[in-house]
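Please fill in the sequence for the structure shown.

STRUCTURE ENCODING:
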């Protein structure tokens, strides 16, 4: 069996760390809580396609066929319906949640019921539930039943000119069939950790898709409410923007064959004034940019590391295996 296009990020070997929930009754549940908006520049480094479940006619050179279409929608622009390419905020939020879960002592947010039996019960990885007074770091940020999310990502709308028709090999759902393949399992049939796809050059042909072209830039806006500074650090680390733990995110379709690499760079942080101290009108907006923003985020990440909110070994492995320098790794050969 040849190389795999993915790696397993091991569970840290410690139980999920649950604490008091936040985000239900108050925007400022902790003293000095931070609320505001982080604006990032995003660059598409490999074809990016968020499939909307729709197939349609595509044309690539002389050939025409039916392909899998990148999600688009129509928006009202001066009374006209104008087609826009959509990257849903929920896709980014789901991706960020997965990364946050994997670099902190958090539950598994999206676990197929059939896979429950593969989890070591001592790690308490099952999703934080209704009625539990204590929730994990990922659920504190992204919400779970009874607890509102304190992080939201805006939908991204782009001009259809960013799309191109690209080809991939036929791809199948991973781990098809029953249960987890042996490669995921450690002793006593326990799952080893979480799966992440590696970066590589793109490869293969056979199936057409519309995708956002390499080199496309866009702005990503993340809103956050009532975060402690270390929680903002955990979020920043998950974006791959800390200089010591820099990595490229991977999103959307065809990840095993090199697609979906995105680079993020923070551009601006807007912090709202403390509502409790300054009345309903707030104390205005504080804007942090440039080197001050870099310093702010690095300090926040340091706070998360010191406070045990980030598992450093996990963040280190993730940033090594998904480092920008891995983008041109040779693709793996079939089967995926
Ligand atoms: Zn949780």
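FILLED IN BY: designer on duty
SEQUENCE:
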């Amino acid at each position: 069996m040849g190389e795999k296009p993915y790696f397993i990020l091991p569970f840290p070997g410690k139980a999920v760390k649950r604490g008091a929930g936040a985000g239900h009754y108050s925007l400022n549940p902790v003293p000095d809580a931070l609320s505001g908006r982080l604006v990032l520049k995003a660059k598409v480094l490999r074809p990016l396609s968020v499939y909307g479940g729709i197939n349609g006619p595509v044309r690539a050179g002389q050939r025409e066929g039916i392909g899998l279409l990148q999600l688009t929608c129509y928006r009202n622009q001066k009374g006209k319906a104008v087609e826009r390419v959509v990257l849903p905020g929920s896709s980014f939020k789901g991706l960020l949640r997965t990364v946050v879960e994997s670099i902190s002592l958090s539950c598994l947010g999206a676990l197929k019921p059939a896979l429950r039996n593969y989890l070591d019960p001592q790690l308490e990885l099952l999703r934080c539930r209704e009625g539990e007074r204590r929730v994990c770091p990922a659920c504190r940020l992204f919400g779970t039943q009874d607890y509102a999310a304190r992080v939201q990502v805006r939908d991204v709308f782009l001009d259809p000119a960013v799309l191109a028709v690209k080809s991939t090999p036929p791809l199948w759902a991973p781990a098809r069939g029953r249960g987890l393949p042996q490669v995921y399992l450690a002793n006593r049939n326990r799952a080893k950790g979480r799966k992440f796809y590696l970066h590589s050059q793109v490869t293969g042909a056979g199936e057409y898709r519309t995708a956002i072209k390499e080199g496309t830039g866009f702005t990503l806006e993340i809103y956050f409410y009532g975060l402690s500074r270390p929680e903002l650090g955990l979020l920043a680390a998950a974006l791959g923007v800390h200089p010591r733990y820099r990595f490229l995110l991977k999103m959307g379709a065809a990840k095993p064959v090199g697609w979906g690499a995105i680079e993020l760079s923070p551009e601006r942080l807007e912090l709202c004034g403390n509502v409790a101290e300054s009345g309903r009108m707030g104390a205005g907006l504080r804007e942090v940019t440039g080197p001050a923003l870099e310093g702010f985020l690095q300090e926040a990440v340091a706070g998360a590391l010191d406070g045990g909110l980030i598992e450093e070994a996990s963040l280190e492995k993730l940033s090594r295996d998904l480092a920008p320098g891995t983008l041109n790794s040779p693709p793996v050969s079939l089967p995926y």
